[in-house]
Specification:
With 222 residues, the chain is α+β, with helices and mostly antiparallel strands. The protein has 8 helices and 7 strands, in the order αααααβββαααββββ. The radius of gyration is 26 Å and the shape is elongated. The two termini are 43 Å apart.
């Protein structure tokens, strides 16, 4: 379960356990083959839950990353906790429920904008998303990131992987119908007008072509 803490511009900006895990992972990577020794994320979640339930701003401040501590400061943290005390109390109670599940993760961003995601399982980080590896987006922003990577790589399989089941089935159905309609292209009625051509394809499809430097290319299809 991911925890949330109000930000200066919004009282619902997320502060996740991934920050704790990322620090440990990067420290391990910097040490070469040395394994990262991480604090138990369940313990961190429990401490946060207890602090949130009681509205203890000092304990919540102590759990923030150094960057978040610089951004909020002790007084800012105290003020935000007061403003969201009821919500934090509900959240802390939910986190302490036996049904809650803690998931720690880390993200490494590369210079080209790509990123690799790792999930902590049984004390070891495992790759959950990297380029062509199918991911499991946990938020709309992560799904959009997968969509962007699929488009950037011009990868049809990756594109299908980020679509909903309904959209994927519809797209695959349309493409299958188009493939079947183009099975015998020499028999189709091609209407040519100068450097442009239009073909009505069985199945309700239409293909538009354009001649560029003497070579015919598909301009559009539906």
């Amino acid at each position: 379960m991911r925890s949330a803490f109000p930000a200066p511009s919004s009282l619902a900006a997320p502060v996740t356990l991934a920050a704790f895990a990322a620090i440990g992972l990067l420290a391990g990577l910097a040490g070469g083959c040395a394994e990262a020794r991480l604090p138990d994320p369940k313990l961190a979640a429990q401490r946060y839950a207890e602090a949130a339930r009681t509205g203890d701003s000092e304990r919540i401040y102590a759990l923030l990353s150094s960057e978040a501590q610089r951004d909020y400061g002790p007084q800012g943290t105290r003020r935000l906790v007061e403003q969201a005390k009821a919500e934090l109390s509900r959240q802390g109670t939910a986190l302490l429920s036996p049904a809650s599940r803690v998931q720690a993760s880390a993200e490494i961003r590369f210079e080209d904008g790509e990123s690799a995601l790792f999930d902590l399982e049984d004390g070891t980080f495992h790759l959950s998303s990297l380029g062509t590896v199918p991911s499991r987006p946990r938020s709309p922003a992560e799904a959009l990131g997968d969509f962007r990577r699929a488009l950037a790589r011009r990868s049809y399989p990756a594109l299908l992987g980020v679509l909903s089941a309904e959209t994927r089935q519809a797209m695959e159905g349309d493409l299958k119908s188009l493939v079947e309609g183009l099975e015998n292209p020499e028999t189709l009625d091609v209407k040519v007008s100068g450097d442009n051509a239009v073909v009505e394809v069985p199945g309700g499809h239409q293909v538009k072509l354009r001649r560029e430097a003497g070579v015919w290319r598909v301009q559009d299809f539906d």
